[in-house]
Design brief:
Layout lengths: L13 H16 L10 E6 L5 H12 L3 E5 L13 H9 L4 E6 L4 H8 L4 E6 L5 H15 L6 E5 L6 H9 L6 E5 L8 H9 L3 E5 L12 E4 L10 H7 L18 E3 L20 H19 L4 H8 L2
Parallel strand pairs: 1-2, 1-3, 3-4, 5-6, 5-8, 6-7, 8-9
The structure holds phosphoric acid mono(formamide)ester.
Protein backbone atom coordinates (compact mmCIF):
# COMPACT_ATOMS: atom_id res chain seq x y z
CA UNK A 1 0.00 0.00 0.00
CA UNK A 2 1.23 3.53 -0.80
CA UNK A 3 2.64 5.26 2.26
CA UNK A 4 0.86 8.63 2.36
CA UNK A 5 2.70 9.87 5.46
CA UNK A 6 3.92 13.47 5.63
CA UNK A 7 7.40 13.21 7.15
CA UNK A 8 9.27 15.91 5.22
CA UNK A 9 8.39 18.53 2.64
CA UNK A 10 11.60 17.73 0.74
CA UNK A 11 9.86 15.10 -1.40
CA UNK A 12 6.97 17.34 -2.44
CA UNK A 13 7.02 18.54 -6.05
CA UNK A 14 6.02 22.08 -6.96
CA UNK A 15 2.73 20.75 -8.35
CA UNK A 16 2.00 18.91 -5.12
CA UNK A 17 2.66 22.00 -3.01
CA UNK A 18 0.43 24.15 -5.21
CA UNK A 19 -2.28 21.46 -5.11
CA UNK A 20 -2.26 21.48 -1.30
CA UNK A 21 -2.34 25.28 -1.21
CA UNK A 22 -5.39 25.23 -3.47
CA UNK A 23 -7.02 22.77 -1.12
CA UNK A 24 -6.22 25.03 1.85
CA UNK A 25 -7.90 27.88 -0.02
CA UNK A 26 -11.06 25.79 -0.37
CA UNK A 27 -11.04 25.17 3.39
CA UNK A 28 -10.62 28.85 4.11
CA UNK A 29 -13.86 29.45 2.13
CA UNK A 30 -15.67 26.76 4.12
CA UNK A 31 -13.86 25.20 7.10
CA UNK A 32 -16.74 23.00 8.33
CA UNK A 33 -17.28 19.84 6.27
CA UNK A 34 -17.99 16.20 7.10
CA UNK A 35 -15.28 14.81 4.83
CA UNK A 36 -13.61 12.80 7.62
CA UNK A 37 -16.72 11.62 9.46
CA UNK A 38 -16.07 8.16 10.97
CA UNK A 39 -12.29 8.73 10.95
CA UNK A 40 -10.24 8.84 14.15
CA UNK A 41 -7.23 11.17 14.32
CA UNK A 42 -4.59 10.50 17.01
CA UNK A 43 -2.43 13.41 18.19
CA UNK A 44 0.63 12.16 20.05
CA UNK A 45 2.65 15.05 21.46
CA UNK A 46 5.87 14.02 23.17
CA UNK A 47 6.87 17.72 23.26
CA UNK A 48 4.81 20.81 24.19
CA UNK A 49 2.68 22.56 21.58
CA UNK A 50 -0.11 25.10 21.43
CA UNK A 51 -0.75 25.90 17.76
CA UNK A 52 0.20 22.69 16.00
CA UNK A 53 -1.81 20.40 18.24
CA UNK A 54 -4.82 22.66 18.63
CA UNK A 55 -5.00 23.52 14.93
CA UNK A 56 -4.72 19.85 13.93
CA UNK A 57 -7.40 18.95 16.46
CA UNK A 58 -9.61 21.83 15.32
CA UNK A 59 -9.08 20.75 11.72
CA UNK A 60 -10.08 17.18 12.59
CA UNK A 61 -13.15 18.37 14.48
CA UNK A 62 -14.24 20.72 11.69
CA UNK A 63 -13.93 17.80 9.26
CA UNK A 64 -16.15 15.60 11.40
CA UNK A 65 -13.41 13.25 12.67
CA UNK A 66 -12.93 12.17 16.27
CA UNK A 67 -9.69 12.93 18.09
CA UNK A 68 -7.72 10.86 20.59
CA UNK A 69 -4.23 11.43 21.93
CA UNK A 70 -2.00 12.84 24.64
CA UNK A 71 -0.12 16.02 25.32
CA UNK A 72 2.11 14.74 28.10
CA UNK A 73 4.02 11.48 27.59
CA UNK A 74 4.48 11.24 31.37
CA UNK A 75 0.85 10.14 31.66
CA UNK A 76 1.31 7.38 29.06
CA UNK A 77 2.99 3.99 29.26
CA UNK A 78 6.13 5.42 27.66
CA UNK A 79 6.89 6.60 31.22
CA UNK A 80 6.90 2.89 32.18
CA UNK A 81 9.41 2.12 29.44
CA UNK A 82 7.17 1.35 26.47
CA UNK A 83 9.10 1.95 23.26
CA UNK A 84 8.07 4.35 20.51
CA UNK A 85 7.56 1.35 18.24
CA UNK A 86 5.09 -0.28 20.60
CA UNK A 87 3.26 3.00 21.22
CA UNK A 88 2.88 3.58 17.48
CA UNK A 89 1.71 0.00 16.86
CA UNK A 90 -0.87 0.30 19.65
CA UNK A 91 -2.26 3.64 18.50
CA UNK A 92 -2.45 2.30 14.93
CA UNK A 93 -5.03 -0.17 16.28
CA UNK A 94 -7.27 2.70 17.26
CA UNK A 95 -6.73 5.56 14.80
CA UNK A 96 -6.76 6.09 11.02
CA UNK A 97 -3.90 8.62 11.10
CA UNK A 98 -1.28 9.65 13.66
CA UNK A 99 -0.09 13.24 14.05
CA UNK A 100 3.09 13.09 16.11
CA UNK A 101 5.53 15.57 17.60
CA UNK A 102 8.68 14.05 19.06
CA UNK A 103 11.92 15.39 20.50
CA UNK A 104 14.08 12.96 18.49
CA UNK A 105 15.14 13.87 14.96
CA UNK A 106 14.01 11.09 12.65
CA UNK A 107 11.23 9.86 14.98
CA UNK A 108 8.53 10.62 12.40
CA UNK A 109 10.47 8.85 9.66
CA UNK A 110 10.88 5.81 11.89
CA UNK A 111 7.18 5.82 12.84
CA UNK A 112 6.16 6.07 9.17
CA UNK A 113 8.25 2.99 8.35
CA UNK A 114 6.62 0.78 10.97
CA UNK A 115 3.06 2.11 11.25
CA UNK A 116 0.20 0.58 9.26
CA UNK A 117 -1.50 4.01 9.24
CA UNK A 118 -0.11 7.31 7.86
CA UNK A 119 2.04 9.52 10.07
CA UNK A 120 2.07 13.32 9.97
CA UNK A 121 5.25 14.82 11.35
CA UNK A 122 4.24 17.65 13.69
CA UNK A 123 7.91 18.43 14.41
CA UNK A 124 10.82 16.08 15.11
CA UNK A 125 13.54 17.67 17.23
CA UNK A 126 15.46 20.35 15.36
CA UNK A 127 14.86 18.56 12.07
CA UNK A 128 11.61 19.26 10.15
CA UNK A 129 8.12 20.73 10.61
CA UNK A 130 6.37 20.16 7.27
CA UNK A 131 2.83 21.11 8.28
CA UNK A 132 4.17 24.45 9.54
CA UNK A 133 5.78 24.90 6.15
CA UNK A 134 2.47 24.39 4.37
CA UNK A 135 0.87 27.15 6.43
CA UNK A 136 3.95 29.34 5.94
CA UNK A 137 3.72 28.87 2.17
CA UNK A 138 0.01 29.58 2.25
CA UNK A 139 0.68 32.76 4.26
CA UNK A 140 3.41 33.87 1.87
CA UNK A 141 1.21 33.19 -1.14
CA UNK A 142 -1.75 35.06 0.35
CA UNK A 143 0.28 38.12 1.30
CA UNK A 144 2.59 38.36 -1.72
CA UNK A 145 0.28 36.97 -4.42
CA UNK A 146 3.09 34.65 -5.53
CA UNK A 147 5.73 32.31 -4.16
CA UNK A 148 8.21 33.18 -6.92
CA UNK A 149 11.35 35.33 -6.76
CA UNK A 150 10.96 36.59 -3.19
CA UNK A 151 13.55 37.94 -0.76
CA UNK A 152 13.08 35.89 2.36
CA UNK A 153 14.96 36.83 5.53
CA UNK A 154 15.24 34.13 8.20
CA UNK A 155 16.22 35.58 11.56
CA UNK A 156 17.29 34.11 14.89
CA UNK A 157 17.86 30.48 15.74
CA UNK A 158 18.62 28.96 12.36
CA UNK A 159 20.52 26.08 13.93
CA UNK A 160 17.73 24.51 15.96
CA UNK A 161 14.70 26.05 14.21
CA UNK A 162 13.02 23.20 12.38
CA UNK A 163 10.52 25.54 10.70
CA UNK A 164 13.25 27.37 8.79
CA UNK A 165 14.81 24.08 7.70
CA UNK A 166 11.53 22.86 6.20
CA UNK A 167 10.70 26.23 4.63
CA UNK A 168 14.07 26.42 2.94
CA UNK A 169 13.56 23.02 1.33
CA UNK A 170 10.03 23.79 0.13
CA UNK A 171 11.08 27.10 -1.43
CA UNK A 172 13.56 25.40 -3.76
CA UNK A 173 10.84 25.35 -6.44
CA UNK A 174 10.29 29.12 -6.37
CA UNK A 175 13.66 30.81 -6.97
CA UNK A 176 13.96 32.64 -3.63
CA UNK A 177 16.87 34.69 -2.36
CA UNK A 178 17.40 33.81 1.28
CA UNK A 179 19.13 36.00 3.83
CA UNK A 180 20.21 34.06 6.92
CA UNK A 181 20.54 36.41 9.91
CA UNK A 182 21.92 34.64 12.97
CA UNK A 183 24.69 34.85 15.52
CA UNK A 184 27.63 32.58 14.74
CA UNK A 185 26.51 30.02 17.33
CA UNK A 186 23.06 29.70 15.72
CA UNK A 187 23.89 29.99 12.04
CA UNK A 188 22.23 27.82 9.43
CA UNK A 189 23.74 24.30 9.62
CA UNK A 190 26.13 23.27 6.87
CA UNK A 191 23.80 20.52 5.61
CA UNK A 192 21.13 23.12 4.73
CA UNK A 193 23.65 25.43 3.08
CA UNK A 194 24.83 22.46 1.06
CA UNK A 195 21.19 21.78 0.16
CA UNK A 196 20.92 25.36 -1.12
CA UNK A 197 24.04 24.93 -3.23
CA UNK A 198 22.81 21.64 -4.69
CA UNK A 199 19.43 23.19 -5.60
CA UNK A 200 20.75 26.56 -6.83
CA UNK A 201 19.09 28.44 -3.98
CA UNK A 202 20.73 31.82 -3.45
CA UNK A 203 21.61 32.74 0.13
CA UNK A 204 23.53 35.46 1.94
CA UNK A 205 24.60 35.17 5.57
CA UNK A 206 24.54 38.13 7.99
CA UNK A 207 25.31 38.62 11.65
CA UNK A 208 23.98 42.22 11.74
CA UNK A 209 20.26 42.75 12.27
CA UNK A 210 19.47 46.41 11.53
CA UNK A 211 16.87 48.38 9.58
CA UNK A 212 19.33 48.56 6.69
CA UNK A 213 19.85 44.79 6.65
CA UNK A 214 16.12 44.12 6.23
CA UNK A 215 15.24 47.00 3.87
CA UNK A 216 14.77 44.72 0.82
CA UNK A 217 12.82 41.95 2.53
CA UNK A 218 9.50 40.67 1.19
CA UNK A 219 9.20 38.20 4.06
CA UNK A 220 10.87 38.64 7.44
CA UNK A 221 10.63 35.28 9.21
CA UNK A 222 11.50 35.74 12.88
CA UNK A 223 12.23 32.76 15.12
CA UNK A 224 12.58 32.09 18.83
CA UNK A 225 15.90 30.95 20.25
CA UNK A 226 15.07 27.36 21.20
CA UNK A 227 16.09 27.15 24.85
CA UNK A 228 15.08 23.49 25.13
CA UNK A 229 17.69 22.39 22.55
CA UNK A 230 20.72 23.94 24.30
CA UNK A 231 23.00 21.70 26.32
CA UNK A 232 24.79 24.77 27.74
CA UNK A 233 22.27 27.22 29.26
CA UNK A 234 25.01 29.85 29.67
CA UNK A 235 25.26 29.91 25.89
CA UNK A 236 21.49 30.30 25.64
CA UNK A 237 21.61 33.28 28.00
CA UNK A 238 24.32 34.87 25.88
CA UNK A 239 22.46 34.62 22.56
CA UNK A 240 18.78 34.77 23.51
CA UNK A 241 18.32 38.55 23.20
CA UNK A 242 20.72 39.34 20.36
CA UNK A 243 18.06 39.91 17.70
CA UNK A 244 14.92 41.76 18.70
CA UNK A 245 12.65 43.32 16.08
CA UNK A 246 11.01 46.58 17.15
CA UNK A 247 8.64 48.95 15.37
CA UNK A 248 11.32 51.54 14.59
CA UNK A 249 13.23 49.00 12.51
CA UNK A 250 10.35 48.84 10.01
CA UNK A 251 10.88 52.43 8.80
CA UNK A 252 12.83 51.55 5.65
CA UNK A 253 11.05 48.30 4.81
CA UNK A 254 9.08 47.57 1.63
CA UNK A 255 5.31 48.20 1.61
CA UNK A 256 4.67 44.54 0.78
CA UNK A 257 6.82 43.26 3.66
CA UNK A 258 5.09 40.80 5.93
CA UNK A 259 6.53 39.60 9.23
CA UNK A 260 6.04 35.93 9.96
CA UNK A 261 6.89 33.94 13.08
CA UNK A 262 5.93 30.30 13.70
CA UNK A 263 5.32 31.30 17.36
CA UNK A 264 5.57 31.02 20.29
CA UNK A 265 7.22 34.42 20.63
CA UNK A 266 9.41 35.00 23.66
CA UNK A 267 10.83 38.52 23.25
CA UNK A 268 12.26 38.57 19.71
CA UNK A 269 9.41 40.81 18.47
CA UNK A 270 8.39 43.76 20.65
CA UNK A 271 4.68 44.31 21.17
CA UNK A 272 4.59 47.60 19.25
CA UNK A 273 5.23 45.58 16.05
CA UNK A 274 1.86 43.86 16.56
CA UNK A 275 0.16 47.15 15.61
CA UNK A 276 1.92 47.29 12.24
CA UNK A 277 -0.04 46.16 9.14
CA UNK A 278 3.17 44.31 8.24
CA UNK A 279 2.81 41.99 11.25
CA UNK A 280 1.17 38.79 10.01
CA UNK A 281 2.03 36.13 12.61
CA UNK A 282 -1.41 35.80 14.16
CA UNK A 283 -3.10 35.45 10.76
CA UNK A 284 -0.33 33.00 9.88
CA UNK A 285 -1.36 30.82 12.84
CA UNK A 286 -4.99 31.05 11.69
CA UNK A 287 -3.93 29.86 8.24
CA UNK A 288 -2.65 26.76 10.04
CA UNK A 289 -6.20 25.53 10.39
CA UNK A 290 -6.85 25.57 6.63
CA UNK A 291 -3.45 24.13 5.75
CA UNK A 292 -3.90 21.30 8.25
CA UNK A 293 -7.42 20.50 7.05
CA UNK A 294 -5.83 20.08 3.61
CA UNK A 295 -3.05 17.88 4.99
CA UNK A 296 -5.42 15.60 6.92
CA UNK A 297 -7.65 15.16 3.89
CA UNK A 298 -4.78 14.60 1.50
CA UNK A 299 -3.04 12.05 3.71
CA UNK A 300 -6.35 10.22 4.16
CA UNK A 301 -6.94 10.10 0.40
CA UNK A 302 -9.55 12.87 -0.07
CA UNK A 303 -8.87 14.69 -3.34
CA UNK A 304 -9.13 18.37 -4.24
CA UNK A 305 -12.03 17.49 -6.57
CA UNK A 306 -13.89 15.93 -3.66
CA UNK A 307 -13.24 19.01 -1.54
CA UNK A 308 -14.45 21.28 -4.34
CA UNK A 309 -17.54 19.15 -4.87
CA UNK A 310 -18.30 19.52 -1.17
CA UNK A 311 -17.94 23.32 -1.45
CA UNK A 312 -20.94 23.38 -3.75
CA UNK A 313 -23.21 21.45 -1.37
N1 LIG B 1 4.59 26.83 15.45
C1 LIG B 1 4.51 25.82 16.33
O1 LIG B 1 4.97 24.70 16.08
O2 LIG B 1 3.88 26.16 17.49
P1 LIG B 1 3.58 25.18 18.68
O3 LIG B 1 4.91 24.73 19.25
O4 LIG B 1 2.76 25.94 19.67
O5 LIG B 1 2.85 23.98 18.13
Amino acid sequence: MENRSLVTIANHSKERILYLLEMAKEFEKKPNRRLLAEKVVATLFFEPSTRTRLSFETAANRLGARVIGFTDPKVTSSSKGETLKDTIMMVSNYADIIVMRHYLEGAARYASEIAPVPIVNAGDGANQHPSQTMLDLYSIYKTQGTLDNLNIYLVGDLKYGRTVHSLLMAMRHFNPTFHFIAPTELRMPEEYKLYCQEHNIKYIEHTDFTEDTIADADILYMTRVQRERFTDLMEYERVKDLYILNGKMLGKTRPNLRILHPLPRVNEITYDVDESPKAYYFQQAQNGLYAREAILCDVLGITLDEVKADTNK
